[in-house]
Design a protein that fits this description.
Radius of gyration: 22 Å
Number of strands: 21
Distance between the termini: 48 Å
Shape: globular
Strand order of the largest sheet: 1-5-4-2-3-6
């Protein structure tokens, strides 16, 4: 490999690519990534000059990264159509609206400054899954590039096409007062306009673009951001608060009392709201999500079914697509709405709009709607350290042990294990609806542990202690990032 090219192989993650720039990738490396992606798109589409939509988020270095990426794409024969400053969902939307062959969005999402990356996809509405990432890594690092003659053009004012599409389909009658927080990230030039456009009374919080992120990272799982939204909701006596991440594909929700609502509970409320008009629908949720979906009476009465699937936006998106589900909900705040509500990809603003419809259809405050869900005691997501080269093996061992306990009817806190799901690590549940999860993290040297009980805080804790005991006995577990 040429000495001036820097591209760390570990940047190729499970479903997107992320590097510290310029430490782990330089512009020549990004150009090679473009050559790799262009080659992959040509191979998959069997077209000499496939059309590819490219956009970038608002960071000081995103445009130079995009420029280097385009150079690589064009050298393979791709026709690049550049929509400029964008959210990830705007780029996904452009693939449908402009009927292009692929997308590449330059973004590091909610990561700190210094990070860059690319979210990419070929099949409409889907982003790369592990197979495509592995293939891209191989093409890029081994210089298996196609040479061709591409070109580029700018698509001007596509931002308003994207905004109008969401506004025109989603007008609401009720004047909902909404705090819209963007953490100075790219969503700031989209979310307030769109939510105002559908009929909300919008209070903006940090919606001016500032790539130094002077307050905190635009990340709706970040407590600092959630506290700021909560304060603004209370100060302004608002009906709802929304927090968007850096590239606009996730949303966090705060109720009218200033309380954070976990995304899996928001998903369940939206699913309930949709189920009456879409009877017999399927919903997909990830294995970290609440067990309430499988016992919910409203969904049962409307003949709706919920499938638990692998954590990760790319996995849930594909499952929604393959199962022709109406929607998918991921605990981290990625929501996916399939036709007729959306095109199947994750769009934080469309997710916020669905919450507005929920409020529009109810004569109740958000806190009242959420209080109608059964109470559950849910642990935070806990991540004990475990080496990358050992974590999958540790999980395999734990699966065997728990399967044996189930076979032998061994009780945990006086409950027998009733059900085991192994699509992504192991999620085991009990008759009362309590459950525990152990899986390997897809992007860090750690495991992921979650427990929940509708019965008691004590049971939630007992299940965690049972899991922790199994893990400690492997001798391969380090410190937890947080614990209950």
């Amino acid at each position: 490999m040429n000495n001036s090219i820097k591209i760390d192989p570990f940047g190729f993650r499970e479903y997107d690519a992320r590097w510290l720039y310029p430490d782990n990738i330089n512009l020549e490396g990004v150009t090679n990534l473009g050559k790799g992606l262009g080659t992959q798109i040509i191979n998959h589409t069997n077209k000499r000059n496939p059309r590819i939509i490219v956009g970038h988020d608002y960071r000081s270095y995103s445009e130079e990264i995009k420029s280097a990426l385009k150079t690589g794409l064009i050298s393979t024969g791709c026709y690049v159509e550049d929509v400029g400053l964008a959210l990830s969902p705007m780029v996904y939307f452009a693939q449908f609206n402009l009927e292009s062959d692929a997308v590449a969005m330059v973004t590091a999402s909610h990561n700190e400054n210094g990070w860059t990356g690319v979210k990419m996809g070929i099949k409409k509405g889907l982003t790369h899954a592990p197979e495509e990432m592995k293939e891209l890594k191989d093409i890029t690092l081994n210089n298996k590039f196609i040479e061709g003659e591409g070109n580029e053009k700018e698509i001007s004012d596509f931002q308003s096409v994207y905004k109008d599409d969401l506004i025109n389909k989603n007008k609401i009658k009720k004047k909902i007062k909404a705090v819209v927080a963007c953490g100075n990230g790219t969503a700031g030039i989209f979310a307030p306009d769109i939510l105002r456009g559908i009929g909300c009374d919008v209070i903006e919080l940090d919606c001016n673009l500032d790539y130094t992120f002077p307050k905190y990272n635009p990340n709706p799982e970040d407590l600092e951001m959630l506290h700021a939204i909560s304060k603004s909701v209370k100060d302004n006596n608002a009906d709802i608060g929304f927090g968007f991440d850096g590239d606009g594909d996730r949303v966090g929700v705060i109720d009218n009392n200033g309380n954070e609502i976990f995304s899996d509970k928001i998903g369940l409320l939206i699913a309930r709201n949709l189920s009456s008009n879409h009877k017999g629908s399927k919903f997909i949720v990830d294995v970290k999500s609440t067990g309430l979906y499988s016992t919910d009476e409203v969904l049962k009465n409307n003949s709706c079914e919920t499938l638990y699937w692998k954590t990760g936006h790319s996995h849930i998106k594909r499952k929604v697509n393959n199962e022709k589900a109406l929607a998918g909900f991921e605990k981290s705040g990625h929501f996916f709405f399939n036709k007729p509500l959306g095109y199947g990809y994750d769009d934080g603003i469309n997710s916020a709009i669905q919450v507005c419809h929920l409020l529009n259809n109810n004569h109740k405050k958000m806190s009242e709607i959420i209080s109608e869900l059964p109470n559950t005691y849910q642990s935070p997501t806990m991540a004990p350290f475990c080496e990358d080269n050992e974590k999958y093996q540790v999980v395999e061992e734990i699966i065997k042990q728990i399967e044996d306990l189930k076979t032998n009817n061994v009780k945990i806190d006086n409950q027998e294990i009733e059900d085991i799901l192994t699509v992504n690590g192991i999620r085991f549940s009990f008759k009362d609806g309590s459950w525990g999860l152990i899986r390997a993290s897809s992007n860090k040297p750690s495991l992921v542990v979650v427990t929940e009980s509708p019965t008691s805080k004590e049971r939630k804790k007992k299940i965690f202690e049972f899991i922790d005991d199994l893990l400690q006995k492997t001798g391969k577990i380090g410190e937890y990032d947080q614990k209950i």
